[in-house]
Amino acid sequence: MSKQEKLREVVRMFIKTATGFKPDQCPIDCLTDDLITDLHSQGVVIKVGGDEPYIPTRLNKEITSAVIDYKKKMIRAGYVAVEPIIREGG
Hints:
Helix content is about 50%, strand content about 10%. By secondary structure, it is mainly alpha-helical. α1 (about 5-20) packs across α2.
């Protein structure tokens, strides 16, 4: 299950439990899709992977040292990997 699908399930469960949702009022999938679409339009993204950028392991010592220093700077600057809350084409 993708992160987007997991998020959709959490939103669906929240709507059911927090609102006393009644299926005859409005389809829950409609409410879920509307909320996810609105979050996407506001620029909400999902954090993915670890907190550190990938570093190739087959580099010489000088390059590896420089890359590690740069990696530390990126982490201090707040680097995170993200993906959209709605996948393109899906």
